[in-house]
Amino acid sequence: MVNDPNLRDRLASDLERRKREAQQAVQQTALWQQVLGDGFNDLTADVDHDLRTRFRTVTEDAERQIDSCDPTAHWAEIGNDVENAIATAVGDNFVWAYQRSEALADDVARSFADAGLDSVLSAELSPHVMGTDFGRLKALGRMESKPLRRGHKMIIGMRGSYGGVVMIGMLSSVVGLGLFNPLSVGAGLILGRMAYKEDKQNRLLRVRSEAKANVRRFVDDISFVVSKQSRDRLKMIQRLLRDHYREIAEEITRSLTESLQATIAAAQVAETERDNRIRELQRQLGILSQVNDNLAGLEPTLTPRASLGRA
């Protein structure tokens, strides 16, 4: 049994199997890097798309509010609503990004178990890592257009009515009526009212366009700053997760390497002891063979002496 060649082959086969298992386990530790990289690529794209969608919704709501009123008379209210909506959108986006980051951390932790390794603890992320500071963000700018005053309304009406009075008055003077007569005055009132309505409509279109442009510019400025902050914070989370799981992977790799080295050393020691045992047995076998040879050489000498005694 000591010098059994089949035993030697079985031991060598078992050692090679353990080597392969250890090497495969070490290779499987790289799976978490793929899960983390792919997960953060998807997370960054999803968070950016979510933020853009929220900002677009804020802009559309603000434009509907602008179209329903005179923005010069309600600009403070519109600005307050837009700023609150932006703050809510950014906060909700950052909370969602934090929740997605936690879920990704759990996915990376499960990748170790899926690879056949021991389960590991998920990285702990602080909610403050996705916080933001709105102190550096600009408020919604003021409008250059001002509310229409009563005196301006009268000027617009008088300008339109004066043209109507002069035109109709000159025509009526042909039939002997004066410049100012009930017909010309009535025409002036009608034309003045029409001019006022037209000017009011044109002014509303102009100030609403200005208000919408201010809102879009404000949202674009916020989007530029917040998008950069969001990307920076996601990169920070990615580094935290990478460092956390890399330390775990290195510890697992070190443990597997030490286990493999211990297995190889034990196999080498067992083989050395077996070889030493074989040599010892061979030495003892040689001694026994020599003793047997010596005994065999003594037998012819002992036989004549025994015969003489009997005589």
From TrEMBL:
Name this protein carries in UniProt: Isoniazid inductible gene protein INIA
Domain of life of the organism encoding this protein: Bacteria
Keywords: Membrane, Transmembrane, Transmembrane helix
PANTHER family: SARCALUMENIN, TRANSMEMBRANE GTPASE FZO
InterPro entries hit by this protein: TRAFAC_Dynamin-like_GTPase
Residues passing through the membrane, by range: 156-173
